[in-house]
What does this fold into?
Amino acid sequence: MPDPIPVESGVTSFELNGARISIRLQDIRELSLSDIVKLLHESPKRQLAELTLFDMLLRDGKDEHGAFRHGVYLFFNEAGACTYVGKCSSSHFAHRIGGHFGMSPKYGMNTYLRRTVKSLGLDPENYGDYVKALPLIGHHRLLLIDANNAGATIIRRLEQVFHRALRPTLNFPKGYPRNYKTFDDGVTLQQALELQ
It folds into this structure.
């Protein structure tokens, strides 16, 4: 089972087979957004082709406090750019993230896989194009921001802050909302959450 490891700026993370799978919200609240963006980009992440359901269930495998439940999840492409930021405030990460990989064109959600199929120039109405896309995104990576017990409002705000700070391309393919302005240099995550 993964053990907590200290990383830059005193942030606690959990590592599994050499790849970080989460960062705890409580450890980054007082960091500046610019430091957090740098940390997120430099942090090792879990490759999608190697991600297992179990990776998203337990943090340390010892008790109920070790369960990954709620927070924000970030997908990064092969080049290291954040392409999608989502929130999980009512179901477990395993359920929410798993839903992003529905393989049917008739699947109701506008999922990460569906958006990626479109961005690759493939046809989101063709099942075969979903199958073609999977090997192309196997090297994409996932990082969880563990915000257990933070509450739905904080998690929604956290997602919005990361939308604004990271500008993920698949969240807003038609352009960013006008109210998603950038933050001033030096703003901490806590301050940004209070501004939302």
Q: What stands out?
A: The longest helix spans residues 152-166. Residues 1-10, 14-18 have pLDDT under 50 and may be disordered. Residues 4-102+141-195 form one domain.
